[in-house]
Specification:
- The protein folds into 2 domains: 52 residues, no CATH class; 81 residues, 3-Layer(aba) Sandwich (Glutaredoxin), CATH 3.40.30.
- Helices cover 46% and strands 12% of the residues.
- By secondary structure, the chain is of the alpha+beta class.
- The two termini are 33 Å apart.
- It is elongated.
- A 4-stranded mixed sheet has the order 2-1-3-4, covered by helices on one side.
- The structure holds FE2/S2 (inorganic) cluster.
- FE2/S2 (inorganic) cluster (FES) binds next to helix 5.
């Protein structure tokens, strides 16, 4: 893997390598983690520790769009729980589940580092801030169109 060779300290290339593997495979299976560990001459446990720390790394298959609702205190005080309930009802799924059409997976996450614009929802790579039920509905409708 060329990513490993681009860094003077091999280990520092681990996160970019995991992102690349996820882009190629869709998520990071145990087999993929073991292969990355071998390339970086790390133990699978060391790679698993990194993969489980970063919420942008997926350890299981998800829908085409991953919806992550921050439920930490500033977001909770700004309506995150109500927003999460709205999403569950609208999508007909619970946290950790994927819609039957494979379009959306719903998760909760720890602080996304944007507490000043709470409540915050990350969908794929994008932050959606100051979210309301109406605003998130508009985002979902746009994503569902393609
Ligand atoms: S608590 Fe939600 S972004 Fe910080």
């Amino acid at each position: 893997m060329r990513t490993a060779e681009r860094f003077p300290e091999r280990r520092t290339g681990l996160l970019p390598a995991l992102r690349l593997a996820q882009d190629e495979q869709g998520y990071l299976s145990s087999q993929v983690l073991a292969e990355v560990a071998a390339i970086f001459e790390l133990t699978p446990a060391e790679v698993e520790a990194v993969a489980s720390f970063y919420t942008m790394l997926k350890r299981r298959p998800t829908g085409r769009h991953l919806i992550q609702v921050c439920t930490n205190l500033p977001c909770a005080l700004s309506g995150a729980d109500e927003l999460l309930d709205h999403l569950k009802a609208r999508l007909g799924i619970g946290v950790g589940e994927t819609t039957p059409d494979g379009l959306f997976t719903l998760e909760t996450v720890e602080c996304l580092g944007s507490c000043g614009t709470a409540p915050v929802v990350q969908i794929d790579e994008d932050y959606h801030e100051n979210m309301s039920a109406e605003a998130i509905d508009a985002v979902l409708a746009r994503l569902a169109e393609g």
